[in-house]
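Table 4 source record.
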Amino acid sequence: MKPLFIRIKTWLSGLSFRTGVIVMLLCIPFYALSFLQMMLPISAAAKGVLWVILFGLAKTFQYGGLTILGVEGVKRVKTWFKRKRQE
C-alpha cells in the first residue's frame, strides 16, 4: 500500500503550480457546503452523512493542493498574499 501512496504523491507533485492553486481553492466551497447543509430540513443522520462526505472532500482538496504546490509553491502563495496586502 505504501508504494501506491508514494506514486500518487510523486504524480501530484509533478502537476503545475496553477493546478495546485485551483485545487486549493476548490476546498473553500466544500468547507462552506459542509456547514451550510446543516440548515437543510432533513434528518440528523442525513446531515451527518452529508457533513462527513463534504468535509472529507474539502480536506482531500486541501491536502491534494498542498501536495501539488509543495513547500516552494506555498511560499510563493504566501508571498503573493503579502504583496497584495501591502498594495
